[in-house]
Amino acid sequence: MTSRLKKVELHCHLEGAAPPALSLAQARKYNIDVSEYLKDGTYVWHDFASFLECYDKISEVYKSAEDYALLTETYLAELADVGSIYSELIVSPDHGKRIGLGADAYIEGVCEGIRRAREASGIEARLIVTGERHFGPDSVVGAAEYAAKAQNPLITGFNLAGEERMGRVADYARAFDIARDIGLGLTIHAGEVCGAFSVADALDVVRPARIGHGVRAIEDSALVSRLADLGTVLEVCPGSNIALKVFPDFASHPLRKLKEAGVRVTISSDDPPFFHTSLKREYDLAASAFGFSDAEIDQLTRTGIEAAFVDEETRQALLARI
Ligand SMILES: [Zn+2]
Known about the structure:
This protein is of the alpha/beta class. The protein has a single domain (7-18, 62-319), classed as Metal-dependent hydrolases (TIM Barrel), CATH 3.20.20. 47% of the residues lie in helices and 16% in strands. Helix 3 (65-81) packs parallel to helix 5 and helix 6 packs parallel to helix 7.
């Protein structure tokens, strides 16, 4: 339905985008039994705890820099196939460390995947380094310091992900100061699991250009006006929100209300195959579930490019392709 529209994605966790067929091939390669978590080409989980368990188990089948190159290349090729011209991938150097590969080799593998995909289809991509809230403020500072030290032109943003209920945003302010100082674009998960206060917290402490999700800002009309006035861009992931029951159904999802209130919104897929979605499906839902016209959907895409963490030359080149 939206196949002919150009697409961009600002919010997607790399490991969360792992295509099931590739994960199965990887599991066979390493002789890892994933049958409990991957059945008939679909990831299997039934509540938040089992979602995390499934996610971790699937991440285990990607071990080497080449595995990460292949994962990145495969996901970006899938995006390019449905008309995507730009993607930002959320990556965690800590994850590279935890699996024993090392942060540098992990990031190098991902960058190699980006280069291969760009060569094949012209798709542009950048990386957002993320800290994981549930590993505590020191580990998040470590992620920001890693991004600062790496001086990798493909790393253009910094994010805070993980368990939103853990601590307050202020505990993580120093990490964002480090990232801001070296010129990274700032975004932060808020207003998904936690209510409107978490979005206000993010605005007060981090002053981010974008917020990951942010949809529960709808609970506070003054906050919605503040987002509109500031021009803060929300990376909205409707399929993820419904899969995790942030809202019971698409009819009660506030995407359209936020847009009509003047908030700058974009659409992304978050952890697509885990939520039985894809960027293509999110675009289709923008039309079928939210009633946006093609022109309105193009506007969401344009907002995504305007808010992308890229240099101006790349931004203008991307805008020219819409
Ligand atoms: Zn996310």
